[in-house]
Amino acid sequence: MSKPIWEYAVPLLNVENLTSGYGRNNIIRGISLAAEEGSITAIIGPNGAGKTTLVQTIAGVVDARGGSVRLGGEPLDGMSARERARRGLGYTPQLRNVFGALSVEDNLEVVTRAMRLPHDRVDEVFELFPILAERRKQRSGTLSGGQRQQLAIASSLLMRPRLLILDEPTTGLAPQIVDSLIEQICVIERSGTGVLWIIEEHPSQILPLCERVFLMESGQIHHEANGPQLLADPGFAEMFLGARIPQA
Ligand SMILES: Nc1ncnc2c1ncn2[C@@H]1O[C@H](COP(=O)(O)OP(=O)(O)OP(=O)(O)O)[C@@H](O)[C@H]1O
Ligand SMILES: [Mg+2]
Predict the structure, then answer these.
(1) Domain encompassing residue 53
(2) What separation in Å is there between the alpha carbon of 86 and the centre of ligand 1?
(3) φ/ψ of residue 167, rounded to 5
(4) Is the Cβ–Cβ distance between 4 and 20 less than 8 Å?
(5) Residues of the chain with pLDDT under 50
(6) pLDDT of the residue at 212
(7) Dihedrals φ, ψ of 227, to 5°?
(8) Among 159, 158, 157, CA closest to 169
(9) Model confidence pLDDT, tens digit, residues 176-225
(10) What are the CA-CA distances from residue 60 to residues 54, 79, 91, 170 (Å)?
(11) 70 contacts 14 by C-beta, under 8 angstroms
(12) Residue at 1 is within a domain
């Protein structure tokens, strides 16, 4: 019997057998995953599992030692982080993701100038994050954690990425801020952008939004599931998140 048509479609992001590490240690070992446009794909796993290393390798910040990364079918292997960004791969790091000494506006200008983007891209991201427009002259080192995270995401969005990788964007934020940040990420997704989201905190709010979830442990993918199904799995909380998911 022939395969259904969607099985022939090229995924937005296709990672195959990816391996990378530091010094003598391979941290991620033979990882394969895919992410689609206009949908949220999550990576979840304990501290030290290699989640950040994985997305840094996909983004070209850490060199791959084997395997391949394709965006829209095009191989990105061997390309710098900047070249990958130009091809539509947006990456918002977990830490040190804004220039603290610069104002909000200057943070965004640095990217538009470096990447030779039209200036109206700044207005575009101000529309999505009105608080940044209000605080455009404020030094970004004095922003709240949530505002800083919004600025970091806004900086990635200036390139109009096809895929946006977010490394724990809600970690450490106050509950109301988390709700609005999640809503803003959903707006990004609904605009057609693929989102690859490393989840650490707030899984009970975020997992229901995730089409696909990859569970990572010790540098490998151990399980793939759909977000809502995963949340409903009674063994999941205990296995991967300790007691962090409130039980119904
Ligand atoms: N620059 C580095 N040099 C050497 N080892 C590193 C480096 N960055 C990370 N590691 C090691 O790689 C392993 C995986 O770290 P990584 O930050 O990728 O995990 P993580 O799953 O993102 O953890 P967390 O949930 O705490 O963010 C850890 O053992 C860490 O100590
Ligand atoms: Mg990490």
Answers:
(1) 12-238
(2) 26
(3) -100, 100
(4) no
(5) 243, 245-248
(6) 96
(7) -55, -60
(8) 157
(9) 899 999 999 999 999 999 999 999 888 989 999 999 999 999 999 999 99
(10) 10, 7, 10, 23
(11) yes
(12) no
Total structural domains in the chain?
Answer: 1
Q: How many angstroms does the Cα of residue 237 sit away from the middle of ligand 1?
A: 23
CB of residue 27 inside a 6 A radius of ligand 1:
yes
Beta carbons within 8 Å of 244's beta carbon, 6+ residues apart: 201, 203, 237
Q: Which atom of ligand 1 is nearest to the CA of 46?
A: 25
* Centroid of ligand 1 to alpha carbon of 219 (angstroms): 10
Q: Is residue 77 assigned to a domain?
A: yes
Q: Which of 27, 167, 222, when mutated, tests ligand 1's pocket best, judged by the most ligand atoms within 8 Å of its CB? A: 27
Closest CA to 179 of 152, 139, 146: 146
Determine the residue of 22, 43, 91 to mutate for testing ligand 1's pocket, defined as the one with the most ligand atoms within 8 A of the Cβ atom.
22
CA 50 to ligand 2 centroid distance, Å: 7
**CATH (domain of 104):** 3.40.50.300
Is 24 domain-assigned? yes
Q: Which one, of 46, 139, 147, lies nearest residue 99 by Cα?
A: 139
